[in-house]
Design a protein that fits this description.
By secondary structure, the protein is α+β, with helices and mostly antiparallel strands. Helices cover 19% and strands 29% of the residues. Strands 10, 11, 12, 13, 14, 15, 17, 20 and 21 form a nine-stranded mixed β-sheet that branches. A five-stranded antiparallel β-sheet has the order 1-2-3-7-6, with helices on one face.
Length: 434
């Protein structure tokens, strides 16, 4: 065997060292690019983050939750719902805890800020990360750099990995409860109307509410009706109550409503057949049907393949009241809030005004949503005729219209017997006097 001289051995040593450094710096085309780079740390046995909003160290990126994205064909992708500063965040990376490889691998994120930011510096964002080949991760971290110490990063469970049979037909998403919400009577009535119409599950993104509303929420949690998602967005950003930056120059619009709506869709993507995106002062009222089940069965038969059904909002101003002379409601008078049975006159929508819509969606066909419309979907949209159903929006009138200009609409009274009975049952079980 030929001997290697000391001089040649030195050359080989130098060559190996240079090759290693070039590979580490990712300058050699034979090495994988940084968007699938493997750092030396394999520390994925840490406590998972359970917060609804998790800030990264840059304080410009806030992670909500990662969801496995089954709809990107032939690729294993993860969609991470987040809130970011639209100018100051340029690069983000997903650190995957690979189950098969028993290692950590990094993938560069595609940053997709939703188009309806309404001028605010922070907006709802989708981070799309492709899982490295053969990784099959259950957990990941998000970092502003492809290098570092993973033990210092928050660890998230990737949700929606398993597509299971639906546990319910309808889930109502209440985007944000804030401003010390205290409308006790209308809240109970709305919850009971949702149950009567066919929704056994209501998801509320809760910032804050009055103690009395809090008691009622606890009752519905115990009943298995309400699931509360804590939403402490004001701990991290200055949220506006207005929908546009020109109206209130804060960090993000309407307490991050767009983000919560998207999160609610993804949370329920494989739990609920349909998701309703409405507010607490809104009820989708069928005209030709009694329940949402029969309404949606009819709409789907007439519109196969449609995944988004839009219902036109009609304002029922609280300045005009009508006494239905209903019995068994004397206990309601001591409660703070509005009695929706008193409001049966609606404003006429005008062709030259913007008439907002709210939605019932098939969550598996929605990719991104805003408040009044879906931004991206895999199916079509259908505007539902007011002769079929309408959105009952019980609110303070901004126009102070005279009664003669309003349309009498007593659709809500079709449910008065069931509603009164159900509300009284709740009041008998919740002590709101203390």
């Amino acid at each position: 065997m030929a001997r290697i001289s000391r001089k040649n051995l030195m050359y080989v040593s130098v060559l190996l060292t240079v090759t290693f450094i070039l590979g580490f710096l990712n300058t050699d085309p034979l090495y994988p690019p940084l968007d699938h780079w493997r750092p030396p740390c394999t520390c994925c046995d840490r406590r998972l983050t359970t917060d609804t909003i998790t800030p990264l160290r840059d304080n410009r990126t806030f992670i909500i939750a990662p969801y496995f994205e089954h709809r990107i064909h032939n690729k294993r992708a993860v969609r991470i719902l987040s809130i970011i500063h639209h100018k100051e965040v340029k690069e983000l990376y997903c650190w995957f805890c690979c189950t098969v490889k028993k290692s950590v691998e990094v993938s560069k994120a595609q940053i997709d800020i939703l188009s309806n930011r309404f001028g605010f510096p922070y907006g709802a964002t989708n981070l799309i990360c492709m899982e490295p080949p053969g990784c099959h991760a259950k957990y990941l971290s998000v970092h502003t750099s492809p290098t570092g110490n993973m033990t210092q990063l928050p660890l998230f469970r990737i949700q929606n990995q398993d597509m299971r049979p639906f546990s319910t037909n309808f889930t109502v998403c209440i985007s944000t409860m804030f401003g010390n919400y205290s409308n006790v009577l209308q809240f109970i009535q709305t919850m009971e109307m949702y149950r009567i119409l066919g929704a056994p599950q209501v998801m509320i993104y809760l910032n804050n509410c009055s103690p009395q509303v809090g008691k009622v929420i606890q009752y519905y949690i115990a009943e298995g009706i309400v699931e509360v998602i804590p939403w402490p967005i004001d701990k991290y950003l200055r949220p506006a109550r207005a929908w546009h930056y020109s109206m209130e120059a804060k960090d993000i619009g309407y307490y991050g409503q767009v983000t919560t709506l998207n999160d609610c869709i993804y949370r329920n993507m494989y739990r609920s057949k349909f998701v309703l995106l409405i507010d607490l002062d809104e009820i989708i009222l069928p005209i030709k049907h009694q329940t949402w089940d029969s309404l949606m069965e009819s709409l789907q038969q007439q519109n196969p393949g449609v995944g988004v059904f839009l219902f036109e909002s009609h304002n029922f101003p609280q300045t005009i009241t009508t006494d239905g002379n209903f019995s068994n409601i004397s206990s309601w008078k001591s409660l703070p809030g509005s009695n929706i049975l008193q409001y049966v006159h609606r404003e006429a929508n005008r062709s030259y005004d913007f008439n907002p819509w709210k939605m019932i969606v098939d969550p598996r066909k929605v990719i991104q949503t805003c408040v009044h419309n879906v931004i991206r979907s895999t199916g079509g949209s259908k505007k539902v005729s007011v002769k079929t159903a309408l959105l009952y929006h019980c609110r303070e009138s901004r126009k102070n219209l005279p009664k003669i200009t309003l349309i009498e609409d007593r659709t809500i009274w079709r449910y008065n017997a069931s509603l009164i009975r159900n509300v009284n049952k709740v009041l008998s079980q919740v002590d709101l006097q203390k």
